[in-house]
Amino acid sequence: xxxxxxxxxxxxxxxxxxxxxxxxxxxxxxxxxxxxxxxxxxxxxxxxxxxxxxxxxxxxxxxxxxxxxxxxxxxxxxxxxxxxxxxxxxxxxxxxxxxxxxxxxxxxxxxxxxxxxxxxxxxxxxxxxxxxxxxxxxxxxxxxxxxxxxxxxxxxxxxxxxxxxxxxxxxxxxxxxxxxxxxxxxxxxxxxxxxxxxxxxxxxxxxxxxxxxxxxxxxxxxxxxxxxxxxxxxxxxxxxxxxxxxxxxxxxxxxxxxxxxxxxxxxxxxxxxxxxxxxxxxxxxxxxxxxxx
Length: 293
Ligand code: AMP
Ligand code: MN
Ligand code: MN
Ligand code: MN
Description:
Elements: E1 9-10, E2 12-13, H1 27-36, E3 41-44, H2 53-63, E4 66-77, E5 80-87, H3 94-120, H4 125-132, H5 140-149, H6 156-164, H7 179-188, E6 192-195, H8 205-217, E7 222-227, H9 232-245, E8 248-252, E9 268-269, H10 278-282
Parallel strand pairs: 2-3, 3-4, 6-7, 7-8
Antiparallel strand pairs: 1-9, 4-5, 5-6
Helix pairs in contact: 1-2, 3-4, 4-5, 5-6
The protein binds adenosine monophosphate and manganese (II) ion (3 copies).
């Protein structure tokens, strides 16, 4: 399929990863690539860490790209793991820093537990854990990469399929905090909460409706609609949900590394006109700020 005409593409990418979590590029390399793709506004949203934000901000200033602070926080809703993006928060907020510390601690416990399971399968659990735990925010993707590098899986995807995905023998669920706790923390740091990739949780339409309704009721402000890799049908369904609950629409690639064609930095379809773009919310003052009062 050919790429949509340039006019139909957004150049606002508010969902990207660097090597501070499970991306492969440094924040500076990511921003340099974004500049070559014509990105005009960028958020770095690493999993559960703000470690790359200062470097990304400086690189964006250098390349003349607008910069938004970002993070992707894992949480739970009912029995599902959900990802919430925080945007435009105060990166020096103490509450958010404490939450990140707690999230990273949960990640480390979980990676160790998964390594124990992998060891029980005859795999080198200690070595796998050691390399994954070197990351600032260790993820299952690091275990997958390590399994692949040791020729214990044909590819990182194969490692997920054989060992690391839910239901596979190396999987351990993480003890993430409830969605409401994450939303309160983002709000208290002056940020905007975006429900990430609503099509990727394996929920029925009825449960997705309940999720988005609860997200809105708990103070969530936007739904990720134009995500690279979303089918037109999934995009239309997300648009209907955003309009129904009065949520803004956010756009992002969920870029992790060059060469993955379904997550291309800065390349995705435009939002429908009926949905309020997230840029409108980003331009508003944080709720409860002194200036607002
Ligand atoms: P974690 O947050 O530790 O559960 O790690 C999940 C990360 O691994 C995600 O952010 C994705 O980047 C990647 N990932 C999750 N599931 C898969 C999968 N089935 N195949 C490939 N990558 C995956
Ligand atoms: Mn990831
Ligand atoms: Mn995610
Ligand atoms: Mn992501």
